[in-house]
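It is worth pausing here to work through a concrete case rather than discussing structure prediction in the abstract. The textbook approach is simple: state the sequence, then state the predicted structure, then interpret. We follow exactly that order.
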Amino acid sequence: MNFEKGKKVFYPGHGAGLIKDFKEIEFNGETKKYVEIELINSDVTLLLPYHELEDINIRPVESKTKLEKTIKSISAKDVRKFDPSKYNKLINEIKALFATGELKDTAEMLIVCNSIYQMKKAEQKPYPQQMRKYYRNGIHYLVSEYALSKGLSYDEAEEYLFDKTGLERL
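Step two, the predicted structure:
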């Protein structure tokens, strides 16, 4: 990937942002190049070693067309059944999906998390906090990337996602 100032990027574990600048920093007598990424909807600015960017799966923000298609493929009504005794295995699968930062994996993670939420809601049982965390992060991933690709505010992109998917705000 060609990393340039002003480029829109997605960083797994954090969301979408803009490459703000490049800096050379000396540490222990060695000068290294770093990239400064300003995250959307956050006061956080990341400073990452340039030579490690591809190793940490930073990628360009997807096109608005691909993002809209992905968002429309997610439905609160798409509820799958899971065996409650296999919860630990399911959490490990969700962690793996979360770690890739790939759009299709984020969509799959949201569908699974929503299914568990709907199941727990029907049983009148609490939704596990760990699952809630992945659900919220999946929402953030999609919203931040869509907002950047479409030139929308975070709130506008979030409203679009909830309107198109029917997912609940947790």
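Step three, interpretation. The first helix runs from residue 64 to 73. The chain is about 45% helix and 20% strand.
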